[in-house]
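Reviewers of the previous submission asked for a worked example of the structure-prediction workflow described in the proposal, so we include one complete record here. The input consisted solely of the amino acid sequence. No template or homolog information was supplied to the procedure at any stage.
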Amino acid sequence: MRMDMDRKHPHDSKTERVKYLTDLLTKAAQAYYAQDEEIMSNLEYDKRYEELEKLEAETGVVLAGSPTRKVGYEAVEELPKERHESPMLSLEKTKSREELREWLQGRQALLSWKLDGLTIVLTYREGSLEKAVTRGNGEIGEVVTNNAKTFQNLPINIPFQGELALRGEAVITYSDFAKINREMEEGQLKYKNPRNLCSGSVRQLNSEITAKRGVKFYAFALVAAEGADFADSREKQLLFLQEQGFAVVDYRKVEEETLLGALEEFEKRISDCDLPSDGLVLAYEDLAFGLSLGHTAKFPRDSIAFKWADEEKETVLKEIEWSPSRTGLINPVAVFEPVELEGSTVSRASVHNISVLKSLELGIGDRIMVYKANMIIPQIGENLTRSGNAPIPETCPVCGAATQIRQVNEVQSLYCTNEACTAKKLKAFTLFVSRDALNIDGLSEATLEKFIDRGFLREFADLFHLERYREEITAMEGFGEKSCRNLLDGIQAARKTTLPRVLYGLGIANVGIANAKMFCRHFDYDFEKMKHAEKEELSAIEGVGEVIASAFMAYMADGRNRQKLENLWKELEFSIPQAAPGGQSLQGRSFVVTGSLNHYSGREEFKAAIEQKGGKVTGSVTSKTHCLINNDPGSVSSKNQKAKELGIPIVTEEEFRKKYLDEDD
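From that input alone, the workflow returned the following structure tokens.
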């Protein structure tokens, strides 16, 4: 694959050139390092790299994915909540084209895609991204600033130096969504739709995971731009955002005479549009007029959403397939006589859970109406005959064990009750060998599933006896002598580990890596003490509480688990953290670290030094924070501002080392 490096990419400004070069150099680097393929020479790469650096300096626009910037991923223990300055209301909806035209009242408006992702509010100060908050419930959202900095096309620096606030949609394109599902290991549960995947990706606690999902951001509204005047024009606001480097949602300026034609134009583009959309938005071009209309308790009056009238077809339900997941959940899928919908043939649709199955009163042979939600995802809209005779399986289609209907938050779902079910066992082993647990390379879910099916793995201790199956593994597809040797060497290396890693890897309900560390520090890394602790003592550990304590005790009380732990412990060699000088002097204190570091190589090293003395590092400043560590105490970052509001001390890295860690250069 070669690219014409002399081709001039069409662009209207230096900002567009920045976007083009960022994308071009990213593709070149990916081809070179990930695919062992060269699409431009080193000389060409260096030339364009220097051009990009120069343009970024001239324009002030630096995209999150720029190759001129090193990505520093961050992880937090929880996403802090924040109240929006003004409520984010939903839009009133209509499916009537005539009603939409009447709504215009003879005025101009902007018609744009209504993107189907996760709405984000961004705040910039002095040209830098300061804060990103999800829509949440409209009143309170989650702070996802670290994750937003990994969005592929989002500028983290802009030329505008005043305070700037805007709204937009974080999305994962259909093509990226399909690619992510294709690349998932065999046996993994596929993602259902781009919107859910995007929401889960943006709200991750580890920004490195967000970065891998290819999230993009499209601005659709300017909230405020300090000192700027847009002559009451919504279009001028969007053009201003484009100048700052933002990708803006595609729109058309319309009036009564041109509205229906623009609607038809958008409708024709649906099948080719890579961005998930669930309709269109019509918003008055005149900002002052729109503002004068005010809003109802639910909706603003300056804009309205247009939803496509779904094409429905009648068909006959042939059967309900039951699809087991790795968590034990068994999902119902409707299989019906094929019908043509929105230009394609469909014959299957998810029924989601038992509650939906019952509400539709589905039965084999029923006449049902099906449609494509957002003109993409097949759904059952109505059951015309409602026989209600669809059988709910009493045994798991994977292992044959008894099933059970469980109700959580008013929703009934079907589960397999067999703890040894292959689907559940696969999930357990996947967690146990993951990076934060035993960290064993070469054991993908597909490989684990093959080992489980062949009887190599029944419990965790069996991992350390795969040597006995060396010949069979070597002969397996995808393996060979070298791959098998590397795998077995990796497993042997994993014998030397730490108690928090193993505790997390056991998969005890709600016991994450942070909780596992808390348990271990509290009990001085003595597993016997931990195993026989009373609920009252466990609940008193910071970050644990009654729910986690109960789950931990239930796991340890199970005779099968105790035997498996005894077998596993024979295979492992634990290293216990060396006691820090001065003991646990930071016990019970919480700290927040922000900004760049000078002494430590990264956040994890600094965090380990604090935890070694009993301290805890969290991701957000609260009233319980002992101090904020920032080498720029005068910064106007949100964490600094929050610390000042709460009266939390702000100290530099060196001040912290001398005062709390008894370190000096």
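The radius of gyration is 28 Å. We consider this example representative of the routine output the project will generate in years two and three.
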